[in-house]
Each structure stands twice: as C-alpha cells, then as structure tokens.
Design brief:
Chain lengths: 179, 179
DNA sequence: TGTCTTCTTGAAATTGAATGGCGTTAGAAT
DNA sequence: ATTCTAACGCCATTCAATTTCAAGAAGACA
C-alpha cells in the first residue's frame, strides 16, 4: 500500500497546479494515522484538528476533503442520513463495502470481489465507465437488538433508514460506534 | 403485486393509530400512477401535486413520505448528492440498484439478483438482519462524454462524486434526466 | 348525530450540512 | 526578491429537511 509523504503529496498537487499547504499536510496526516477502516465526516475532522491544537477553518476542511476525493487520495462515502464520510483510498484499493445498522449507526466494512465484478458487468453492459461502486447494506445489528430496539421490522418493510429519526425515544449510544 | 385502495390504506394506518387523510390518499395515488421505475423527491412530488391542482404543503409532503417509508409503503433512495427520492415499495419487490453519472446526475436502474444474494450472504455471516441492500455505481455516461466532459478520470481516482460541483463550467442538461 | 380527544395540517421559523464571496496570506515559479 | 495567483479564514448564504404551534379535521364513543 502506497503512503504519502509531504514530498509525494506536494508533487502530486503541483502536477495539477495546486499547492501544498500546512493545512493539507495536516489533514492528510490525520487520515494516515487513523485506525484502518475508520472514516470521518468533515465536521468530525474539524473537531479532531481543533483538539490537536491545529484548528483549521471548517470551509477549508470541506474544500480539502473534496479536493482529495477528487484527486483520489480520499474516498467519499455516503452512509447514514445525509452525512458524508471520508476515508483513505489506498493506492491498490482493497475495495470494501459497508454494513450500516439503521438503529445505532454503527458501520462494519467488508470486502467482496464478486460485487465489484457484478458492478463492472453492469457498467460494461451500459457502455459506461466505472468510477466507484459501493454496496451499502442496511441492517439491525445484534447489539441494537439487545439494547431494546424493536426485535423485528414489519414484514413488508423494505427500507427503514428513517426509523431512528422517527423514534424520538432514547437513542442507544454504542461505544464502538464509528459514525 | 399488492396495490393499496383507500380502504386498505386506512386500515393499515389505523392499525398503528394513524389517520387516513385526503393528503395521504392523494400522495399514495401519485406514486401508484407513476410509471414503473420512477422515483420522486419530496420537492418534485410537491410540484406535481401543485400542477394537479391539489397543492399540499411541503412539510406535509416530507412528513408523509417519511411515514410511508416507515410503514414500508415507499422505499427511500439516496441517490445523487443529498437528494432523497421515494418510490413505491411493491409487496414483492423487484429490488434494483442504481447507476449514477457523476457528471450529469442521470440515474439508471438495474436489477441483479446476485448482488442481493451476496449482500444476504454478508449479513448472515455477521449474524445480522438485512433490511435493505443497495448498490450504487458511480460512472460517467456516454452522453456526458459527448457533451464535453473530461474523457477520462485520473487512473488513481476511485471516487469522484465531487467533480460536478468542483467544475463550475456549464453543467450539461440531459433531457432524460430523472434527478 | 353530536361531542370529545388527539392526530394532522399548513405557514413560518429553524436546523444543519455544505458552499460561495471576498479581502488577506502565502506557495512556488521566474 | 519579485510577482502571480492559489488558498486561507471569516462570514453570509444556500438548500434540503425538520420543528413549532395554532387551527382544523379524523375517528371513537355515547
């Protein structure tokens, strides 16, 4: 797996007419020291930077993650309820997909080559060019069940991402939550 | 495939302590007369209702589609860039996935049972309960290419949903766009 | 049918993620 | 060192979506 240094980041930026700035270096470093498999929203990233004593303005954070997603350094994920998250996009990407618990928002990654292949097949069939391919599976996880969420969804219920926001009763906080 | 009448909708609502209102009946009817495979945003639905001479306030539209998604009558889709769309969730759902052009936002549906099966396999492996499963493939479509969008993305580029918003040059309008 | 309870509506205000404008700061090429 | 302009930070703005609240209506029951 390829890892950026300040120099390689600089040359990649410069090759497109962009500049290396302390902010960009810092933000990339946060992602590079993030435990593998974690992802951050712009807002979360902004908080982390503040806690580290290197505050960066929120608009710069937004601009930077978008730029890095554009460059292919970060991967943009749309998981639960209109929150975008970003994660390192390794040079030889082990493409992964996500399981999201609609109750506690916990996410779990998994890899599955045949999904990627199926996606590629669909794109070829349509004569398009594939850029990214993400399977998101919405589930209820065992922990959420244990903590008192409804034991099952109505049989006809196929998509229930809205449960959480429609049940104003206490939302169980899951300590290992990533979202 | 099961289809709601005013009566069956009423009993399903009442069984949960909710009420049948003209607004809810009208909104369901719009979805039921919508060509198969189409989906609407709350905003679009609101416009359609206005054009039909049966204006319903935007907040009611939002509340109703969320309620119907919760009941399993509608399926909530999160397609391009923070726009939620809704479609009828047929009783024997033909589960479909989406191709999204990152340039013109056009979406194309496709069905693929093996993706659903792969998803199910993953969920079983984790001991979870599957609620929904959606593959979203980000592409550049031939029309967008023809209209002058960049012919290719950088080789390292894995996720580029941000292109459109970062290229402030004219956005090609595609007439058959659904989004 | 009339009365009562409370769910629902509509209008307006509010939230919250994300973006844009603009004056200033600071990369990096010459 | 000078010059050009990308990038920053602050702040206002946008836009989807939600909430608030008084008025209205659905449904239950007598």
């Amino acid at each position: 797996m390829f890892s950026y240094t300040a120099d390689s980041l600089k040359s990649e930026l410069n090759s497109k007419g962009w500049r290396l700035t302390p902010q960009r270096e810092t933000i990339l470093q946060v992602f590079q020291t993030l435990p593998r498999g974690n992802h951050l929203s712009a807002e979360e990233l902004h908080d982390i930077l503040g806690q580290r004593g290197e505050p960066i303005s929120l608009s710069t954070v937004y601009r930077t993650v978008k730029l890095m997603a554009r460059m292919g350094i970060l991967r943009e994920l749309e998981l639960a309820e209109g929150h975008k998250h970003y994660e390192l996009n390794s040079a030889s990407p082990h493409h992964h997909h996500h399981l999201v618990c609609v109750q506690c928002n916990r996410t779990i990654e998994f890899e599955n080559d045949s999904i990627w292949k199926q996606g590629l097949k669909q794109v070829d069939r349509a004569g398009f060019q594939m850029i990214d391919c993400q399977l998101t599976i919405y589930t209820i996880c065992p922990e959420a069940l244990r903590m008192g969420w409804p034991a099952s969804v109505p049989s006809r219920w196929m998509c229930s991402r809205s449960i959480a926001s429609m049940e104003p009763t206490a939302t169980p906080e899951v300590s290992s939550s990533q979202v």
